[in-house]
C-alpha cells in the first residue's frame, strides 16, 4: 500500500438552505486514503459524508480545499474526466437495456474497442457472479441482482477509486450481510480502492480497513474498526460505534465515584486513559466488559429486564441515577433473575474515560 493515494486537504463546503440559513456540510476536512484500501465514511444523517463522496466524484464542488488522486489534482475536473466511478443506493440502471448493454454502455461512450468491451463485460459479470444473466432486463432481476449489475458496470470501467454511496441500504438484512462479505472479497480480489459511505456502524465495522467517523461536517475519529471500538475518542463515538454504558462521576486519587452510587477503581480503567486527580469525568463501559459479582462490586443495582438474544443474555440494571446494560454469554454463567439486586464489575482496564 502506498500512502496518500487519495488526498483530501482542507475541504470546505457550505450550503445555503431554502430558508436562508447556512449549513457547513464539510468543515475543513482533511484525510488520506491509501491505495487498495477499503475506506469507510460513517456518521449519522446530515454529517456531510455524502457531500464528501460527491465532491470526490465531481457531482459537487468544494468551496475551498483540494482533492488529489494518484498525484493528480481532480477537484477542478468535471465528473466525466475523473478516474473514479460511483455506485448509488438507487441502482440507476437503464430499464430498456439488457444487463450486458447496461455494463457496456459506459465503455462504448469511452470509445473502447468492441472486443475489449466484450471481455470487460464478461469479466465484470464473473466478478459479481451474474454470468449467464447478461440478456435479462433489470426488471427481470431481484433487487440484489440489480445492485450487482450496478457494481459490475462500475467495475468494468476500471476506476482508480470506486465510490459507494450506501449501496446496500435498499436490501433486506440477510441479503445485505451476504453482500457485505462479497463486496469485501471483491475489493480484496480487485485491489481497487473503495470509498464506502454508510450510516450503519455494524456495516462500517465489518467492512472497513479504516473508518472515518463524521459529525457536523467534521471527522471526529479516523482509525481501524478495532481501535475505534476499543478507544473511542469521545462519548459520541463511544455511543455511536457499538453499545456503551456512559456513567458520570467525580475523579479522586483512587478512581471515579459514580454519580448515584458506586466506585470505579483506577485499576479497572484502561492505562492509556487520563484520569484527573479531581473533577467531573464520564466513564464508558461496554456491555460485554461487565462481570456479575456475587459479593461486592464497583456498582450495584436492581435487575429490571433479562433479555435472551440467542448467543447472549442482556441484563438491564437500574442503578438509581441511570440504567446500564451488561451482556453475558447465554450458556454457563448464572443469569440473574428479574428484581434481584446484583453487583457489577468492569473487567480490569476495560473502563475508559471519555470526553463528552
Ligand atoms: P445522509 O446519510 O442523510 O445522506 P449525510 O451525512 O450524507 O446524510 P450530506 O448529504 O452530506 O449528509 O449533507 C450534509 C448537510 O448538508 C445536511 O445538513 C444537508 O441537509 C445539507 N445539504 C446537503 N446538500 C444540500 C443542498 N444541495 N442544499 C442545501 N443543503 C444541503
Topology, element by element:
Blueprint: E1 6-16, E2 22-33, E3 38-42, H1 49-57, E4 64-69, E5 72-73, E6 84-87, H2 99-109, H3 114-127, H4 143-156, E7 161-165, H5 173-190, E8 193-198, H6 201-207, E9 210-215, E10 218-223, H7 225-230, H8 235-240, E11 245-251, E12 255-258, E13 263-265, E14 279-285, E15 290-293, E16 299-308, E17 312-318, E18 323-329, E19 341-346, E20 352-354
Parallel strand pairs: 3-8, 3-9, 6-7, 7-8
Antiparallel strand pairs: 1-2, 1-4, 4-5, 9-10, 11-12, 11-14, 12-13, 14-20, 15-19, 16-17, 16-19, 17-18
The chain binds adenosine-5'-triphosphate.
What this model shows, in words?
The protein has 356 residues and is α+β, with helices and mostly antiparallel strands. The chain folds into two domains: 6-235, Rossmann fold, CATH 3.40.50; 245-354, Nucleic acid-binding proteins (OB fold (Dihydrolipoamide Acetyltransferase, E2P), Beta Barrel), CATH 2.40.50.140. The chain contains eight helices and 20 strands. The strands form four sheets. Strands 6-7-8-3-9-10 form a six-stranded mixed β-sheet, with helices on both faces. A five-stranded antiparallel β-sheet has the order 13-12-11-14-20. Strand 16 and strand 17 (312-318) form a beta hairpin. Helix 2 crosses helix 3. The model has no long low-confidence stretch (mean pLDDT 92). Bound molecules: adenosine-5'-triphosphate (ATP).
